[in-house]
Write a structure and sequence with these properties.
Glutaredoxin; 4 strands; single chain; 6 helices
Length: about 120
Amino acid sequence: MKNVFLEYPKCSTCQKAKKWLQEENIEIEERHIVENNPTKQELKKWIATSQMDIKKWFNTSGLKYKELGLKDKLESMNEEEKIAILASDGMLVKRPILITAKGVCPGFREEVWEKLLK
């Protein structure tokens, strides 16, 4: 399985993560998170694989998250509704996302990424 890197190229964290991957000589398949939005099926699989709370998959610092008032709405939503809203717009999803044969991680956390790649 090829390592997949979902990114928003203008995002500074995505740029930092991509630079780190290049310095580590890690081959990746790049995917633009807005132009090629994660699907509901992909998100269900990735969230389950990551073993992280679905809240960790939201880009809580993003303008879209704030515009939609999701901070207050998420509590009353079920998992299907949360996945549907994540799948509706790549800007709502925490980025970058690294998908490897060993697991999935939203957000750039070097120590977690090292475990997924080594």
